[in-house]
Structures are given as structure tokens and as C-alpha cells.
Design brief:
This protein is of the alpha+beta class and 97 residues long. Helix content is 24%, strand content 8%. The chain contains three helices and two strands; from the N terminus they run ααβαβ.
Length: 97
């Protein structure tokens, strides 16, 4: 049975809201979380979560544009720290091995 886009969306996300956060990797790529608002507790979220904790709790799908510019150990550690279910890397200039 073929479903509509709306039905596919509802089945995939179990009728929860879809939360989209647009950010740059520089926002959270750091070896020290001190002084980064991304990691500070925030009264806008339940339990005073930080934005990082909130995103992690949502099991995000991360779409990384210009991925070839983020090909470092620190970048990967920072991305994986958000506990994504999937990372899609986009680039117009891939590294050729």
C-alpha cells in the first residue's frame, strides 16, 4: 500500500512535532564546553536542559553541509556527542581517496 507524504510523516514521527534546529558546527565543536551557550542550562526547555541536551534527547538527524570542511576528530566527536540516529554529509567538493 502506498501512503501519502502526510501519512508517512505521521507514521515516522509517531504524531510528534518535528523540531528543526539550524546551526553551524562552530556552535558546538569545542574541546571545552565552558562559556558556550549551547551547553549552558536554558530556562526555555523542560528541566532547564541546555540546547545540547535537548537536541540529544530528540535523537536528531543531522544534515552537515560543507562536510569536507568538518573532517576532523573534534568535529566527529562533537557530532557524535549529540547522539544522532543519522548523519548526512553534503559536499560539492569531496575528498578523493
Amino acid at each position: 500500500m502506498v501512503s501519502t507524504v502526510k501519512e508517512a510523516f505521521q507514521n515516522r514521527f509517531d504524531k510528534k512535532a518535528l523540531n528543526i534546529v539550524v546551526s553551524t558546527i562552530q556552535t558546538f565543536r569545542t574541546s571545552s564546553k565552558d562559556g558556550r551557550k549551547f551547553y549552558d542550562e536554558n530556562g526555555n526547555f523542560e528541566n532547564n536542559f541546555s540546547l545540547a541536551e535537548y537536541i540529544k534527547s530528540e535523537k536528531p538527524v543531522i544534515i552537515l553541509d560543507e562536510a569536507h570542511k568538518s573532517n576532523t576528530k573534534l568535529s566527529y566527536e562533537s557530532l557524535l556527542n549529540l547522539d544522532p540516529v543519522f548523519i548526512l554529509e553534503l559536499t560539492a567538493t569531496p575528498n578523493i581517496i
